[in-house]
Amino acid sequence: MGLPASVSLDRLDRTLAALADPNRRQVVDLLSRRPMRAGELAQATGLSPQAMSRHLRVLRSSELIEESRGDSVDARVRLYVLRSTPMNELKAWLEQTEALWSEQLLSFKAHLEAQE
């Protein structure tokens, strides 16, 4: 049972590495509710602007988030938005892993029952 062809193992590794940090998971959680500016994210998480900048850089390089620059009022404003593709790939991988383990456990159960 292989991963769906659309799932990139490299991106999956980057997603898991990015989500290994609790501050980045908190940012992902916040962005799952709505797009936010870096300052809003720093304030909501209690991190310094410099620390938030580092976390946002990791999340962007893992492709979990993207930066949207400006609007019609102020082109300097940067909004951060959660991307769905990496999370969908992680979900597909987890579902595949769960199916594999379920199959293995059912086989083990059948083996034990046959031994009785």
UniProtKB/TrEMBL annotation:
InterPro entries: ArsR-like_HTH (IPR011991), HTH_ArsR_DNA-bd_dom (IPR001845), WH-like_DNA-bd_sf (IPR036388), WH_DNA-bd_sf (IPR036390). Signal peptide: none annotated. It holds the Pfam family HTH_20. GO terms for molecular function: DNA-binding transcription factor activity. Residues 4-98 form the HTH arsR-type domain. It comes from the Bacteria. NCBIfam families: HTH_metalloreg (NF033788). This is ArsR family transcriptional regulator. It comes from Paraburkholderia bryophila.
